[in-house]
Amino acid sequence: MIGASGDIGRTIVQELAKEGYSLLLHYHKNTEKIKELTNSLSPEKVLGVYQANLTSKIEIQKMLDNIIYPVHSIVFVSGLADNTLFQETTEKMMDYMLSLHVKAPWKITQHFLQPMIRNNYGKIIFITSIWGEVGASNEVIYSSVKGAQNSFVKALAKEVGPSGILVNGISPGFIDTKMNQHLNSDEIDNIISEIPLNRAGLPRDVANAVSFLMSEKASYIQGDIIKVTGGW
Questions:
Q1: Which terminal residue of the chain, N or C, has fewer Cβ atoms less than 10 Å from its own Cβ?
Q2: In what helix (H) or strand (E) does residue 184 lie, and over which residues does it extend?
Q3: What distance in Å separates the CA atoms of residue 228 and residue 204, rounded to the nearest whole number?
Q4: Count of Cβ atoms closer than 10 Å to residue 225 Cβ
Q5: What's the CA gap between 31 and 26, in Å, rounded?
Q6: CA torsion 157→161→163→168, rounded to 10°?
């Protein structure tokens, strides 16, 4: 699990642990949340916890070198939104967002792909975003890198499908997490008024979709981006 300490990541971890999966957990800065999470789980469910800044080649490689367990599935949840106007976005932020959302997943997937191909089994799941499909003003860079994730899912699925590896994405809409804390109550109400199910999504809605894709019930779904948007 890449990005286990966020609201959605923690919920996915709890759901997969409940379903019997053994987990390797990555986080960046939120040590307190990752400790709370691991303490809430049975010790045998967590095989390892790894800290790494995904914009650092050195830290990514160190994390990968320290993983001694076979990895059968990868769930990418880690990410960061940026609400800057495009014309005010610095090149430093552009590089940061590309490294975090695009290049780091490329490198991590590449590292584990060959063993998956050898075993003729693997599952790779990306938590992308509705903005990766339709775009959002004030989130142009975020929309761009999430769109890149969607394209990566679709292309890689074609390449590795013959090797028994399933690659899919989940595209959440408006989910009640800290990522949306910059919005005021009126803005939130306006968004919810546009959602046919008339509520914000919850982290567990995304976790349920991950649970489905991890199960054998999803064994004929490949290269798809499943929308979890409440119809928004």
A1: C
A2: none
A3: 11
A4: 18
A5: 11
A6: 50
**Using one digit for the tens of pLDDT, what is the confidence trace for 25-49?**
999 999 999 999 999 999 999 999 9
Q: How many CA atoms lie within 13 A of 223 on its CB side?
A: 12
Distance CA 58, CA 93 (A): 19
Q: Specify the pLDDT at position 204.
A: 97
For residues 148 and 101, the answer to whether their CB atoms sit within 8 Å is yes
The single-letter DSSP state of residue 196 is: T
Taking residues 110-126, report their average pLDDT. Answer: 98
207-220: pLDDT as tens digits: 999 999 999 999 99
H-helix segments, the chain: 7-18, 31-39, 57-66, 91-98, 104-119, 131-134, 140-160, 185-193, 203-214
* Pick from 78, 109, 102: nearest CA to 6: 78
Active site residues: 142
